[in-house]
Amino acid sequence: MALAIYRHRDPTIIGACGAFETGDTEIEIFYLVFEAHRGRGYATSAATALIGHLRSAHPDHDLAACIAPEHVRSNRILEELDFIDRGPRTVNEKPFRYLVRAAERPRS
Fold first, then answer.
1. Can you give the pLDDT at residue 107?
2. For 1-108, where are the E strands, in sequence order?
3. Quick one: which of 17, 36, 75, 76 could link to 31 by a disulfide (CB 3.0–4.6 Å)?
4. Crossing angle of helices 42-57/72-80, nearest 10°?
């Protein structure tokens, strides 16, 4: 799933967000705000809305994100949204930080 991010006051696309299943109980999210529109809370708003939708649709799935180490702001956004840094991960020979927001599963 990929969705455009746009401002309510005009139809200009300012970024994108989305998600894809990476396993039976994990969904990886992503978001991107074009440089001219960064620093205004759009990424946080988009990630929050995306997480809310995915929690409703797939409450038993963990949510994950792979963030390039130089994207410090994305790392902060995800930590503010209760993602936990699970350490480094390599994807296509490139380093990433792997962050996870675990599903709230009933204790057995």
1. 60
2. 2-6, 13-23, 26-33, 62-67, 84-91, 94-101
3. 17
4. 50
